[in-house]
Amino acid sequence: MSLKDNKSTPNWKLKLHEVIYEADTPAGKFFDLALLVIIIISVALVMLESVPEYFELYYWEFYIAEWVITIIFTIEYILRIISIRRPKAYIFSFYGIVDLLSTLPSYIGFFFGGANLLFAIRALRLLRIFRILKISRYIGESNKLTEALRNSRAKIIVFLFAVLIVCIIAGTLMHLIEGETGGFTNIPLSIYWCIVTLTTVGFGDIAPVTPLGRFIASVIMITGYGIIAVPTGIVTSEYNKADSSKDSIKNTQVCPVCNEHDHLNKAEFCHNCGNRLNA
Amino acid sequence: MSLKDNKSTPNWKLKLHEVIYEADTPAGKFFDLALLVIIIISVALVMLESVPEYFELYYWEFYIAEWVITIIFTIEYILRIISIRRPKAYIFSFYGIVDLLSTLPSYIGFFFGGANLLFAIRALRLLRIFRILKISRYIGESNKLTEALRNSRAKIIVFLFAVLIVCIIAGTLMHLIEGETGGFTNIPLSIYWCIVTLTTVGFGDIAPVTPLGRFIASVIMITGYGIIAVPTGIVTSEYNKADSSKDSIKNTQVCPVCNEHDHLNKAEFCHNCGNRLNA
Amino acid sequence: MSLKDNKSTPNWKLKLHEVIYEADTPAGKFFDLALLVIIIISVALVMLESVPEYFELYYWEFYIAEWVITIIFTIEYILRIISIRRPKAYIFSFYGIVDLLSTLPSYIGFFFGGANLLFAIRALRLLRIFRILKISRYIGESNKLTEALRNSRAKIIVFLFAVLIVCIIAGTLMHLIEGETGGFTNIPLSIYWCIVTLTTVGFGDIAPVTPLGRFIASVIMITGYGIIAVPTGIVTSEYNKADSSKDSIKNTQVCPVCNEHDHLNKAEFCHNCGNRLNA
Amino acid sequence: MSLKDNKSTPNWKLKLHEVIYEADTPAGKFFDLALLVIIIISVALVMLESVPEYFELYYWEFYIAEWVITIIFTIEYILRIISIRRPKAYIFSFYGIVDLLSTLPSYIGFFFGGANLLFAIRALRLLRIFRILKISRYIGESNKLTEALRNSRAKIIVFLFAVLIVCIIAGTLMHLIEGETGGFTNIPLSIYWCIVTLTTVGFGDIAPVTPLGRFIASVIMITGYGIIAVPTGIVTSEYNKADSSKDSIKNTQVCPVCNEHDHLNKAEFCHNCGNRLNA
């Protein structure tokens, strides 16, 4: 409701902004809930529409529902632009683009055809859920998790890069050993198989059949089993650290002289200026 | 045996209650053991009955065994109601309903048919095992585990929700890329495939066949490999915390002379000043 | 060489014992190495013999090699009995039985036939490797690991028991939903499928085909993905604890008065008797 | 640029060395970037060449590109030998051999044929990437990871050795139980299947079909599920230790007055008595 202070904005715009962008008032809560239901319905429709039997049976129902939802989303998009003070900031924001992509495909499909390719874009409507959920309740709880993941990102990228190089070399080897027999017809395919195997997914559409190929595959699998521990170890450790650093911030005093924080729990004197701390 | 104080309850009811609900006396222990054996036999019968060859061969044996067990369970159910002071509390409790569902399907099947659909309910008899095992011995040991799981529940739900959204978007993408060729005939099926892949199960009944589809699949798999670390990290960390907080509760002695804490559980003297601790 | 003190044992017996049971002398080391090679050869032969092509081609070579190895093992077994002071203790020990089972199948197969069933027993020869390796070098390093596993055993058993019950209930459900179509012909088979799925193995010989079955399967898979964290969390935590407790033992003093150990690193006085510790 | 001090080396050699071996100067950076691009192109070509359709279609393009790259790599190899003061040290170093193997196969293939077998060796060109990346930026971050992996190496080898022995015994058992029916035609193949199952890969090309075989398979899978925790626990724990030991090395200040340690890195005064620390 920070916009209320601004006297130049008309009152109905402020009210609209409150309803659309916030969830403090009953109207705002109802708006969010209604939007949540429409998004879920629209994504469910996109899914069901892709099943040929349903599509043939309920062609017109899908068609009408699609247009109703598109029009609702279009109205919502226009209202969002109107009610905000700086529309450009919204339009080019992440959610602004997602909102646009939630309505545009239907219009493009109507005027130019090619509905099939636009399916994927319509599924992006799902991303809108994140805004509505305003998952602040959980975010607070998963804050440390995010910090842990951010800290371990660089290490996990190095790790995945190493995994990829192992896959390329092992894939080339498997192509040479197995050749056509097991379905390892070319190197990219063999690399794909290596990734499938090393990640312990194991579809089985391609599988080694020669004894040597199976031996190499065993080595790859046991390696994969051994290195599955690495990302887990990293995340666990970083999560532990994020956890304990969070705790220490809560427990610490701030030096009244030099404003230093980060004191140990048992500290009686400031480690920065030597002043006694008021515990 | 807390009921023994109550003089208004007849003696035989108290005795029955002791035998059925408790396991302190030899009779109570025997009752529990007998029930355990009958439950395991009954669940084993439900399983074997579902194998067509066995069902045809031993039709009458299954039929008789089923009725013997049903009658035993019915008698037990009636005895439980009789022997308890507040039958309603039992009848509508979790185990009361499980007990009822252990006997009812056979009667319904006898009078109305439809035995096949009642299989699942009969398998619920298995849940009765938990009561008998009174797994207090292990529960004590897995207490910290339960605490760790309760603490990490919210975070794991957020995580699984994020995994689901990744699956929906990736599934839609795979349906567009692969189409009919690899078996990705519709979006719900593609999402199912994504879940199968991301969880590293990998049945292989559906598998990408186009180069681009295989590339996307590789990205999904490596992502899955990377994020398998997250729930593990959460549970491990929470388990560690639950563990150390448990320990710290025990160790709350503070030396009355030098105020030192961090004493071992068995400490009788302060390790800092040598003064006797008031345990 | 503790046997050398004993004057009643003839000298050649002591020498033989030293060579066979110990690895301090060059002769003892050579004996162990030779035995290691023979065991590996014998296990490799058992494996190769099972390949029909090799078996037909090299029937006589296998036959002769098998008998040479059996005779060597028989001689070794007799020497082990002769050279030890208390033969009974050896014969009924774990390794004594393994040694006997390494020779007996060949004789039984020769006199009574049935060689196929004796394969498994001959593969037990592999267990003999453990004795020879005397993996003391590594054991020292994996001591904490063993402790961690022992501590987490009870919890992991409870966990696996819970997993099994989930599998039985989910298996029954899948049998009812899928029936014959997906290959879920009976409940034990469906339970087997559930175990395959929950452990993320996913062979794909049985896979759900109905939409509802696939939905339930997705729930099972995501559950499996979530609970794979639990044993990992337990082992990691216990391993950490075993680790830190090991460290504290190294760093601690023993009280000169009451012989108490387990002192904290910073302890200046014994927590048991209050005596000053000589740091 | 340490070579610059040496007056006996001609100036152009020093300059060349700077460009080729270092990345401090703009020329050195450009050289590294150009080489990186060529290596990636060359590896991509090796991959694409293995796809029969592309190979037939673009035979001459591949042929020419291969020779251009080979000549570039040959020139680079010669320049590396010329510009370094001790060529032998380079030639027999790891990267020296990789560099040689990046060029040799093309020449051998030209003079003696057998290009197919030389594919694998050409894929080794990928290893050259590591040198160029000079992944110092990430190495710094994954230093603790390397330490953790080195510390846990022995334990993980013992663990994998135990897994292998379990696989051999379980594989023999499965061969005896399943025989030909499920595809367990010989023991090595059954062991291969056990590794596939225990690592939770599960291709499904071989799968048990008898009830007993499926029961044993279930036991193997649940075992695999339980022991997947072990390497993870080891790595996580060692990573934690490496992490904290890194920190503790930095924090070795001890207060000269009260002997308190546990100071923060930035501490200038003792948090226990307020005395200035001698950093």
From TrEMBL, chains A, B, C, D:
Q: Which UniProt keywords apply?
A: Ion channel, Ion transport, Membrane, Potassium, Potassium channel, Potassium transport, Transmembrane, Transmembrane helix, Transport, Voltage-gated channel
**Segments forming domain Ion transport:** 29-245
* InterPro entries, sorted: Ion_trans_dom, VG_K_chnl, Volt_channel_dom_sf
The reply to whether Transport figures as a keyword in the UniProt entry is yes
State whether keyword Endoplasmic reticulum applies: no
The portions of this protein that span the membrane are 30-48, 60-82, 114-133, 154-177, 189-208, 215-235
Topology in the lipid bilayer is annotated as:
Multi-pass membrane protein
Q: Where in the cell is it found?
A: Membrane
Where mainly located? Answer: membrane
What is the official name of this protein in its record?
Answer: Ion transporter
